[in-house]
Backbone:
């Protein structure tokens, strides 16, 4: 297979290997868009899930946040009645790469989190059995996740599976402050990560275009793919802001640009998802990605 990610069909994704999927991102030259959604949030729009909306507005990769891997489902609002979709249904309805967050919360920290959201051998195996294309090791606000616990998490995931894609990093402080230490990238690479995530320019304090470029340079030097993330609720900002971040992220060398779930009811403002996609790859590939779920 020698395709860019926005050219992949559902069948391509179903049969592709880890390396083929990574190659499809690399071949896309900075035009890959990840959209994060809250699995447990009831969407504002009825009948469809947030994941389906993300696909409809052009997501290449859909990340399910707050997914309980001991009871995995995605909420929908079906004619004013809260109902659920299982993960296989989400995969069939979206036709996109699907992954989930797993949070390597420090053992000594007392936080309120469902066990099915935390990183363990059991949750890793559950994600694999569900057919997730990737696991994203990061921390939600207040979870006290650090770069060290993420590093330990990479080693654990890779010890369980050689085939699942590992995305690792922080898009915000997660309750312990922002960490822009680039020395950790080489350690992430040695542990088995595939993609390293940092905050996008103009999201967390101090991250400008120059620092974002340093981040991506370090990631690429380690032989990994880089992702810059909008995860600071600014996914609910105006379209001009999204466009600026998209341009600066691509110029910095990001292979993937991520947009978070803090719009309304667990999804970024759909128009902002659209603006991000059009800015990264133009209307031709954006409209194709929006339409193609075969």
Residues:
């Amino acid at each position: 297979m020698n395709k860019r990610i926005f050219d992949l069909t559902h069948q391509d994704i179903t049969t592709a290997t880890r390396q083929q999927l990574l190659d499809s991102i690399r071949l896309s030259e900075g035009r890959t868009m990840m959209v994060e959604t809250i699995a447990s949030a009831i969407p504002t729009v009825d009948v469809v899930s947030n994941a389906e909306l993300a696909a409809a507005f052009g997501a290449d990769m859909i990340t399910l946040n707050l997914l309980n891997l001991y009871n995995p489902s995605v909420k929908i609002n079906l004619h004013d009645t809260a109902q659920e979709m299982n993960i296989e249904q989400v995969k069939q309805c979206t036709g996109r790469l699907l992954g989930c967050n797993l949070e390597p919360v420090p053992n000594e920290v007392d936080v309120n989190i469902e066990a099915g959201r935390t990183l363990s051998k059991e949750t890793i195996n559950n994600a694999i059995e569900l057919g997730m294309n990737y696991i994203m090791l990061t921390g939600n606000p207040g979870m006290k996740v650090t770069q060290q616990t993420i590093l330990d998490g990479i080693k654990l995931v890779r010890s369980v599976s050689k085939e699942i894609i590992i995305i690792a990093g922080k898009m915000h402080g997660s309750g312990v402050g922002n960490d822009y230490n680039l020395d950790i990238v080489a350690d992430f690479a040695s542990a088995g990560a595939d993609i390293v995530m940092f905050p996008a320019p103009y999201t967390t304090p101090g991250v400008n275009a120059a620092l974002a470029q340093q981040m991506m340079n370090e990631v690429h030097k380690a032989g990994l793919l880089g992702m810059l993330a909008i995860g600071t609720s600014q996914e609910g900002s105006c379209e001009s802001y999204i466009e600026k971040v998209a341009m600066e992220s691509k110029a910095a060398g990001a292979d993937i640009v991520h947009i978070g779930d803090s719009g309304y009811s667990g999804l970024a403002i759909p128009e902002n998802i659209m603006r991000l996609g059009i800015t990264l790859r133009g209307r031709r590939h954006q409209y194709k990605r929006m339409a193609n779920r075969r």
User: Anything to note?
Assistant: The two ends are 17 Å apart (CA to CA).
